[in-house]
Amino acid sequence: MSETVLSMVPASLTAGTLLIVIAAFTGTLAAALLFYSYLAQTDELRKPILLTSGIATVSLVIAHLYLTYQFIVGDYTNAYVYQNSADHLDLLYKVTGVYANHEGSILLWATLTAIVATYTVYSSRFQGLGSRLVQSLSLGVVATFAFMLVTQSPFTPIEVAQSGVPDNYVPADGSGINALLIDPWMAIHPPITFASYALLVVPFALGVTHFVSLFRGQDSVFKEWLPSMIIWLRVSWLLLTAAILFGAIWAYGVLGWGGFWSWDPVETAVLIPWLWLTATLHATNRYSKTGEYKLFAPAAAAFVFPLIIFATTVVRSGVFRSVHSFAAGGIGAGVLFLMVVTGILAIGLPLAYWLLNGGDESSTDRNWLSHGTIFHAVVLSFAVLAFISVWGLLFPVVRSTITGVEVGVGQDHYNLWSYPVVVAMLIVGGLYALLDMRKRRLAIGATVAITLATLVAAFIAPSGNWYLSDPAAHDPIVYRIVGNMSVLSIVPPALFFAGTWAARFVSRARGVPSRSFQMREAGILLIHVGAAVMIIAISFIYLFAASSSAVVVGLEDVGDNPEPIVEESDDGQYTIEVTGYESETTPDVEDAALSPEDVLTAYEENPLVRGEITAVDQIEGTAVAQLDGTDVWVAGDPDSVSFEEGEEIIALGSLFQFDSTEDVGADAYIYTNAENMGTVADPPSDVHTPRVIDHQMDITVYEGDNEVASGTIAAQDHTDSQMNTNDPLIQRGLTGDTYIVATEIDEIGAGLTITEYPLANQIWLGVIMGMVGMVLLLVGDRRRDTN
Amino acid sequence: MTPRKLLTILVLVGALGFGYYSMNAAPVMSDQDYTYQGGIEWHEDPDEALSVAEQEDKPVLVYYWTTWCTYCQDYEDDHYQNEDIQELLDEYVLLAINLDEPGDGSALASDHDALYPPMHVIIDDNEEILGQLGGFTEEDRFKEELEAGLAAS
């Protein structure tokens, strides 16, 4: 009976998919029960709610663990595992392979979102006005993810995913992970990114609930939840900032990703929610102090999540190809559905309320230079920066759809439009800090002076490097004006901004005994000074980056020769000394060979097999030898090959496989010859192609007599994907990095590029200062609340 | 009207103006007939390029690019502006395929396994591959590859 039941189950419904199906249904049920509880204002259903939301989350967590397990053991009957892993990979990359592609990363996102949503259901602190609707919306998002994963499951069996393969087909090895993802950052960048995405579901749900509540004539949810909302937003900001930082550091070390930032669609797409989130944090802070942004702050908080989905669409849709296109798995209707629904909720509800009930801004502030107006300018500027990026992504698509003409969006679009906005923000931000200290006269005077200094600095360019861009005569006038400004113009605003916020810190924190208050203020200071440091460093790094190239030859002899190879760079600036070279192939022939059992399920025409000879025989003039006591035998011409019992051999040959009904004494013969067979101690050569050839060379680089860098650079050939990856040598320094990368290395020689990136580490420093500042702010506020 | 409202409206109008201006001011990468990578005229239709190649008895240089690819930008700003390289390019029929929107070029792109830009493939008018150059290379190497392609044709 069980077999009939089993045969009714479609082959695509594997245990993993079943877990996701369970999550989809229990998640939906939990969302519905919570929604009912919200409407009926009842708590009677708490038990089934706890149960269903718990089951949904546990199912997703188990599904994720199960998929990880399949990756670790190399269960290639799962098509997703087959496509994104291989035996030769280190354990780390087997584990991270789980989210190397679309389905697995959505599963990770869904799992983390489910944990966050269920936490709000279970937490005793997350009760109160509107909480059931918040939880319902969050679980609704989880359920949507789960339904997406049911239709596009990371647990699809290989015989379903690939047509024309036998039912018991087990690929001998996986087809491999994208070569660019074999990097330790893979363990950090994606999980943090998805953790921040998962947290943002709560501000979304809170914002939407606020407006639903207003429409129902109830109290302000936003006001009641404000302290909680601020924490959710800040932690999300912290993680999103970390995600972008780690992505940038990763991209900096990977040749071909255009450095730490190249306005790639994905980079741009994730900057948009970050900018919006930063604007939201400003507006929410202002609300908590003055009550302004009563409508905008909750609406803005709700809108970050749809922007996140938009960013994902950009990565996954294939409409915008980018460095992240390895994850473009066809996005399916699910992501679009989620984007449209969350977008409508986050924009439509606030807009409708505003149109029906009028604006909230009861501000009667008539002063252009008031605190409030200046603050508003900053919030608007963040939105403008976000819009410049959104538009840069969208308008090529819009214009080519309308006119069929393809237009280019280069880095100039983003850099040159954003630059004046950033300069203005720094000046206005400094003005705000001075106004905050009630130094109105000084504030106005200093702002005017700094603005003048900025304008003057824009004309001071000691050399061609100082110009922001190199616009051509036919470029739009805005590009020509901004592009011909000197980068020196960033210095006065950035120093003014950092200085005024430092002064504000001193004036506020001095004489206040409360430690938590000082911690808070120090956090605010670090965030703003960090921003100024980062902005200066970003402005300078590429304009002043200088490259030289060099060629070294004769690497194969370097080991035999006690003298290193010494070459000069083409421009004579650097001397390169090569002291070592080696290459390593993965997997080697022993690891690449299949066991006799695997030969039977791998269906390879010419398998490479390894085993111990357990019996020998001759059939019709052919020498045969049994391997490992199995039904797999090797065969060959007795004049050419000789088999000896007890010998462990590696052999490549043509496979003759029989099913069990044919009585030929074995399940399979592998017909080999002397050239393709050998012992494990002396394996045949040229019987397999390694998947990765890693060339490493040890170099020391001198500029004049000074050593500027020393270490190992490497380049990997990935033979199956025909891709190359590189490990550059980065010598970090206070004033900048010396960055050496080889475009290609082999035993004959290597081509090197040596680049100086000034102020590279100040970028990371600035961002880390901001993150530390945010932690101080969180801790300081928490201590204040508990005191 | 408070300064805040006025400021908001001004910024909105400014943003709309920016949107319109920037969209129309963006450099044209391609129109109905040609695409203009690095200021050079490239065919977009493989059939057209192949028939021109047959008529003029030239090999075809296929350039796979995208708008966001920084190494393509380097090719366009440096390599294609190099006079020696331009002389060699004159001996080729040029075909550029945007990997984001390959259009008629999609069959060719999949024949050439062109997954990542930039990539250059040299073919003859029978689509026989004469040379292939994935990723970024220095100008000298690029020149050598173009010379080798001409020698092979």
Summarize the structure.
The complex is a heterodimer of chains A (about 775) and B (about 150). Chain A is of the alpha+beta class and about 775 residues long.
Low-confidence stretches of chain B: none
CATH class membership of the largest domain in chain B: Alpha Beta
Shape designation of chain B: elongated
Q: Give the number of helices of chain B.
A: 6
CATH structural architecture of the largest domain in chain B:
3-Layer(aba) Sandwich
Number of strands of chain B: 7
Number of strands of chain A: 17
Label the overall shape of chain A.
globular
Structural class based on helices, strands and sheet pairing of chain A: alpha+beta
The CATH homologous superfamily name of the largest domain in chain B equals Glutaredoxin
The radius of gyration of chain A is 31 Å
Helix content of chain B: 40-55%
Q: What integer value in Å does the Rg of chain B equal?
A: 20 Å
- Determine the N-to-C terminus distance of chain B: 73 Å
Order of helices and strands of chain B: HEEEHEHHEHEEH
Q: Portion of residues in helices of chain A?
A: 40-55%
